[in-house]
């Protein structure tokens, strides 16, 4: 768990983090950074990018807000400046942020994104999303089945930690994506088959990113993780814990089917 400012031995870093957080109207970035946890070096840029991406697309960082500087973001996420620069470059490519000389990096309004091939791109993304969901429907129920048969105590501990982090982040409006995917990845890890884990990793930034960008392009309300979704996760976990392989397989299939429905059925006014 991150230490509170009172627990920190040095005053300067504490003051710097406080300064960063006061630049934003929300503490979403701080919540995201606190939930990053240990990740391998080659994935730091993707994790920083994904958390910033979700914070912007889900409206946790308001349009027009100035992001902290590269130095401040590096401090906040505990990474190097080149890693932060990679993440910001990807956000600029997505036309979610823009850099203003001598001023900083600002969150762009959605019309700036929608103007990029607005007619064709959403339909292309829908096909991309559906292909990813189809792959998940084949792979993940089998992961849950094998995880129930092969899981270790350490696997169960990891799943439970991620579920708790997911629920806590969601309760305070924080960025929960990394906990959500982490739970699915932990199930794949529990199969003791590295190939399943590798397939799941290809989907982490694939389906989730495409869904959120599609919603942004089409001005659809951000997908909110409901209590139902968290209950489904808990149910899958309990079935794996009890080594009910068939039950875990069915529950995972139902979860993905429900997730597909939740992704596309949250339009304004509905």
Key terms:
mainly alpha, single chain, 270 residues, 66% helix, 3% strand, two-stranded antiparallel sheet
Oligomer: single chain
Structural class estimated from helices and strands = mainly alpha
SSE run: HHHHHEEHHHHHHHH
Number of strands: 2
Shape: elongated
Distance between the termini: 38 Å
Mean pLDDT over the full residue set: 75
Query: What is the spatial order of strands in the main beta sheet?
Result: 1-2
Q: Determine Rg (CA atoms, Å).
A: 19 Å
Q: Which blocks of ≥5 consecutive residues have pLDDT under 50?
A: 8-14, 16-27, 34-42, 111-120
Enumerate how many helices there are, as a single number. Answer: 13
> Helical residue percent?
55-70%
* Major sheet details: 2 strands, antiparallel
How much strand content do the residues show?
under 5%
Commentary on this structure:
The chain is an all-alpha fold and 270 residues long. 66% of the residues lie in helices and 3% in strands. The termini are far apart. The protein contains 13 helices and two strands. It has helices at 11-21, 28-34, 44-57, 70-77, 81-93, 110-114, 121-150, 153-171, 177-190, 194-204, 207-217, 227-241, 245-264, and strands spanning 97-100, 104-107. Strand 1 (97-100) and strand 2 (104-107) form a beta hairpin.
